Amino acid sequence: MAEKKLGTQTVKFKNPPSIIAGGTIVGPKEGEGPLRDYFDMILVDDTYGEKSWEKAESKMFQDAVNLVLKKANLKISDIDYLLGGDLLNQIISANFAARQLNVPHFGLYGACSTMTEGLTLGAMLIDGGYADYIIAATSSHFSTAERQFRYPLEQGIQRPFTSQWTVTGAGATILASTGKGPYITHATTGKVVDLGMKDANNMGAAMAPAAADTIITHFKDTGFTIEDYDLIMTGDMGRVGRDILLELLYKEGYDIESKYKDCGIEIFDESQDVHSGGSGAACSAVVLNGWLLSQIQNGVYKKVLFMATGALLSPTSSQQGESIPGIAHAITISTTL
């Protein structure tokens, strides 16, 4: 009997894991944004001293893991599992970092939802008694994502206003079986939702239906209301996706606007010319492990619904005319049990 399951898609943890540390590395553009003071490391060069952007991204992933270990005063040998992924084919940023880290590794691909996918699975491992320490980590890079999913940067293709700017960065979280919190108390696993969007330059519209579905399911499964949360935060809807999400929820009787923020909107200033906002697997990861954890630790927010969203496309699927499936995974972060 699934005694920890609520409703159709949600888990309530009996032994909620504690978030004991978060680590962040971001690129130069992110370091010029409004959240600059909350990042642990800001690169001055997005090649990070490497010969390619892909190598730079993998190095960011590895260094984010080492950084969060140092903040938690732990060694890599203390970690039971690393759960990590990124946006690149065969998740090479995470896998190539893991070969250097020498730690049991589950490679994940949830596109930009990977951060909360890793935190959900990590919380399940700890709650189930299979681990004491878990690292969930992910990365992305503007230049690696653009040339894989869209166009070679050398072509200088003009970006439409619905497009988003992939965050260059990496974020890592350590979950522990013991600690003073904040805690992951619930997790709602999303379904793949696809309403037919085919434009790879409009990720917000592709992901919004999945985001709405997960939020509605979360409230139905748990019995929580909007008022139970201090903040409801999505990973990278951007301005276009935000408006669609709010409209979809409002039609179903959920008005979350007064409690709502999006990582992709918060990480950049409008003057930085990112069009609809930020995106990428690192978008939610660096905002969560930087700004949001700081706000929670300082008592600004006591209970947060945090949800990373992903567009599950590939270059092959786009070239074959496929639409873009979306997914969203949500976790409840609470300072109390």
How large is the radius of gyration? 18 Å
In round numbers, the mean pLDDT is 96
Strand order of the largest sheet: 1-2-10-15-14-11-12
Number of domains: 2
* Total number of strands: 15
Number of helices: 10
Between the first and last Cα atoms, what is the distance in angstroms? 24 Å
Per CATH, what is the topology of the largest domain?
Peroxisomal Thiolase, Chain A, domain 1
Helical proportion? 25-40%
- What do we call the CATH homologous superfamily of the largest domain? Stage V sporulation protein AD
CATH architecture of the largest domain: 3-Layer(aba) Sandwich
**How does the helix and strand content classify structurally?**
alpha/beta
- The secondary-structure element order is EEEHEHEHEHEHEEEHEHEHEHEHE
Highest CATH level, the class of the largest domain = Alpha Beta
Estimate the strand proportion: 15-25%
Write a brief structural summary:
The protein is α/β, with parallel strands linked by helices. The chain is 34% helix and 22% strand. The protein has ten helices and 15 strands.
Verbal overview:
With 337 residues, the protein is an alpha/beta fold. The protein has two domains: 5-176, 3-Layer(aba) Sandwich (Peroxisomal Thiolase, Chain A, domain 1), CATH 3.40.47.40; 183-334, Peroxisomal Thiolase, Chain A, domain 1 (3-Layer(aba) Sandwich). 34% of the residues lie in helices and 22% in strands. The chain has ten helices and 15 strands. It has helices spanning 28-31, 53-72, 92-101, 114-127, 142-149, 203-222, 238-251, 263-266, 281-297, 315-319; strands at residues 5-6, 10-12, 18-26, 41-42, 81-85, 105-107, 133-140, 165-166, 169-176, 183-188, 231-234, 260-262, 278-279, 303-311, 326-334. The strands form three sheets. Strands 1-2-10-15-14-11-12 form a seven-stranded mixed beta sheet, sandwiched between helices. Strand 1 and strand 2 form a beta hairpin. Helix 2 crosses helix 3 (92-101) and helix 6 (203-222) packs parallel to helix 7 (238-251). It is globular, with a radius of gyration of 18 Å. The mean pLDDT is 96.
